[in-house]
Structures are given as C-alpha cells and as structure tokens.
Specification:
359 residues, 13-stranded mixed beta sheet, alpha+beta
Length: 359
C-alpha cells in the first residue's frame, strides 16, 4: 500500500497533529478558508499536517509559498515528497513549500513525476523539556543546591525591596514573594508594558506594538508574574493552547538583576505546568553559537532541526513538431510577401529575424 493523502473534513482530526502545539495548529489562529489540513496515511501510520498559502520572501524573491506545520513532526522523505506533490497539484500557483524546525533535512534535487523538487536548508539546535508525571520529579531535574539558591535569591530580593520601602518613608515589612498567573483575556496591559520596559533595559529590545497586539501576534495564553508587594520581579509568557506548551518569552526586573529572578520564574512556571499535566515545553531553536544557557537546564532535550524551502519546478509544456528556427524562417518568408504602407516597420522586423537566424 502506497502513501495516501486526503483532505481532513472532521475538525476533531486536528487533534491528530503531532506534536500538538500552537505553531503546528493553524486552525487555532487562522480563519476558515485561510488554511488546509491533510491526512497522510502509510500502512497503519496516520498523521495530520496543516498548511497555509502565503506570499513570502525566499532568497530575496517574493514567492507564493505553502507554509507547513512540521515543527518536530516525525516524517519520512517519501511522505514529505507526497505532501509537496499534493500541494503542487492542488495549488498550481505555489512555487515553494516551507517548514520551520523540521526533523528532516531536505536537500538537493529530486525528480518526482512531473515535478522537480529542489531543497535547501538552514541548521539549528532545538530544545524541549518533557514533563514528568509529578512535581517532585520535576524538582529533581535541578540539584538541591540550585533549588536552595533560588529560594535564597527570592528572599534576598524581598529584603531588598523591603529596604526600599523604608527609604521611601513607607512602612517597612517583609514582603513574601507572590506567584500570580493570568490567563488569556485577563492579562493586564500594565504587566505587558513592564515586560516591554524590562526587555528594553536588559536586551535593548524595542517592541513597536501595543500590549494587546503583542499578546495576539505571539499567541500568548498564560502569563506568570513574580511579585514582591507592588514590585514585579519577573514575567513569563507561554502558549498553552495544546498539550505541548511553547515558551514565548520571559524577562526580569533590571533593578533586581543580581537575584536571577528570570531563572526563578522560569522554573516556578515549569512546576505549574506539571501541575496542569502538560506534556512538554518547546523552547524554540537557535544557532549553535547563540544558545542561551537556560535552555540546557531542567533536563532539556537537544535536537538538530532544519528550516527548509522546497522549490517546485513544473514541466514546461512543449508543442510537438515545432522547430523554433523553422518557425522564424517561415515568419521571415511571410514578411517578404507582405505589402504595406508601413515599410519601415517590416524592414526592421526582417532585419531582426535575420540576425536571430544567424546566431
């Protein structure tokens, strides 16, 4: 039995996308008609892949492109070839099929029936955390010494802010650390504004958008906030629409940078995700020389992934029994017998055809 590809008609089948997470699930952020989903069947193996058609820059040229959700999706070359051919047949205007953070490195030129597929790729390192069943197991992913350090960092941050209250002539009191969580539609804009400020001061990153635009663009559903009284120590954003979570971003208060609160909130948010029975957390991909240190902590798994563009070259239709040179000779012969008042035009045409025949 060969590979069979068919359109998905039942929306419940979208849950068969593997891995099931936001950037493979176009149905969660595209309107009906803006994406398509297909079922790939090979023997007993069945997988669902979603894609959308966009205009995209590919090596400096704007190309009609099918962006596919194949982020860490197990797929063979044969299945991928079949998917590209299906898309090429269904969408004659598509010139490129692309995917990000795929496991398969599509390279070189491949003849596939009436299509020639030419692949190119960029290599990255991807990191993910597979969640254990219990909080205790998650805590064991870091040493007891590290967990003790994180507790001390939070205590010292609380003491520092308490002293600041005293300097500001406010009532001095020890401020317990609070871990707050906001869900989609309830995330205060002032928290996102603080996130923008933290990123500007620590990474010189400027977000040219409103808080609401940021949350929508990056599909943020959950916001974890570490607070000491009225002072925000760190913020973590995540995309938790699916069993596999995506780590969108996090930032720490630069005034408390000595206490490593970014590491603290990241680990605390992992604990909360385990409590919610999430399956895994994707940390995204980086070039080897640019991998942040935190991505290699907490029992993370490192994998080699590829961003690929597959160019589709279609067979050109050639008319049978047509010799281009003979055709030009025939046109030249016809122009010699034409009588017309615009003799200058035909003299130029005959001269042009004679020059082409000499080449």
């Amino acid at each position: 039995m060969g590979i069979k590809i068919s359109q998905v008609s039942n929306p419940q089948d979208y849950e068969l996308v593997v891995p099931n997470f936001i950037y493979n699930r176009f149905d969660l952020f595209c309107n009906s008609g803006e994406f398509e989903a297909v079922k790939i069947q090979f023997n007993e193996n069945v997988k669902v892949v979603e894609y959308k058609i966009v205009d995209k820059m590919v090596r400096g040229e704007m190309k009609r492109t099918a962006e596919t959700g194949l982020w860490l999706t197990p797929i063979t070359k044969e299945e991928l070839d079949a998917l590209v051919i299906y898309i090429a047949d269904r969408h004659p205007e598509v010139e490129v099929v692309s995917y990000r953070n795929g496991l398969f490195k599509y390279d070189g030129t491949h003849e596939c029936g009436k299509y020639t597929l030419q692949g190119g790729y960029t290599r990255f390192r991807h990191f993910k955390i597979i969640f254990p069943e219990t909080v205790e197991e998650m805590e064991q992913c870091v040493s007891a010494k590290t967990r003790s350090k994180m507790r001390r960092w939070k205590v010292r941050a609380a003491e520092t802010i308490s002293e600041k209250y005293k300097e500001d002539d406010q009532e001095q009191k020890f401020l317990d650390v609070q871990m707050l969580e906001y869900q989609q539609g309830q995330i205060p804009e002032e928290i996102v504004e603080e996130f923008f400020r933290f990123k500007l001061e620590t990474k010189e990153r400027v977000y040219h958008m409103t808080p609401r635009e940021y949350l929508e663009k990056y599909f943020v559903t959950n916001c974890y906030v570490m607070k000491f009284g009225d002072t925000i120590g760190a913020i973590h954003f995540s995309c938790e629409q699916c069993p596999t979570v995506y780590c969108e971003n996090h930032a720490y208060n630069p005034e408390l940078k000595e206490f490593s609160l970014g590491k603290c909130i990241f680990f605390d948010s992992l604990i909360e995700m385990v409590k919610k029975k999430r399956q895994a957390l994707f940390l995204g991909a980086d070039k080897l020389e640019d991998v942040p240190a935190y991505k290699r902590l907490y029992g993370s798994v490192e994998e080699e992934v590829f961003n690929c563009n597959i160019r589709i070259k279609r067979e050109e239709k050639v008319l049978e029994n047509v010799n281009p040179v003979k055709q030009e000779e025939k046109v030249l012969e016809n122009t010699n017998s034409i009588e017309c008042e615009n003799t200058t035009f035909f003299e130029k045409l005959k001269k042009h055809l004679k020059n082409r025949l000499k080449k």
